[in-house]
From TrEMBL:
PROSITE patterns registered for this protein in UniProt: ACYLPHOSPHATASE_1, ACYLPHOSPHATASE_2, ACYLPHOSPHATASE_3
Domain Acylphosphatase-like, first and last residues per copy: 5-92
Catalytic residues (positions): R20, N38
Chemical reaction(s) catalysed: an acyl phosphate + H2O = a carboxylate + phosphate + H(+)
Keywords for the protein's UniProt record, in alphabetical order: Hydrolase
Native source species: Marinobacterium weihaiense
The name this protein goes by in its record: Acylphosphatase
Membership in a protein family: Belongs to the acylphosphatase family.
Keyword Hydrolase (UniProt): yes
Catalytic activity, EC: 3.6.1.7
Keyword flag NADP: no
Pfam families membership: Acylphosphatase (PF00708)
Domain of life assignment: Bacteria
Length: 96
């Protein structure tokens, strides 16, 4: 099966509601690599990499998010596969 990466930016009420933590749980349960972080403007950004079906599953979950979130929009795009990523990290807001 093909391996892909998806870059996603989630807007709405997505900070202060454990969005990053639950994204990491979803990603790890789906054996994805990548990262998630808060953006200074209140959005959340994520990079999801792994088997296409698993990536698409977590990408769809982002539209719903955890119980306390209120997702307004998810803008996602395909990204080059990064086989150097290990695990799934919660990054600091200022990490590049």
């Amino acid at each position: 099966m093909a391996k892909i990466c998806v870059h996603a930016v989630v807007s709405g009420r997505v900070q202060g509601v454990w969005f990053r933590h639950f994204t990491r749980e979803q990603a790890e349960a789906s054996a994805l690599t990548g990262w998630v972080r808060n953006l200074p403007d209140g959005r959340v950004e994520a990079m999801l990499c792994g088997e296409e079906k698993a990536v698409r599953h977590v990408e769809a979950w982002l539209s719903q998010g955890p119980e306390l979130a209120n997702v307004a929009e998810v803008v996602s795009s395909d990204a080059p596969f990064d086989d150097e990523l290990e695990g799934f990290l919660i990054r600091d807001s200022d990490a590049v």
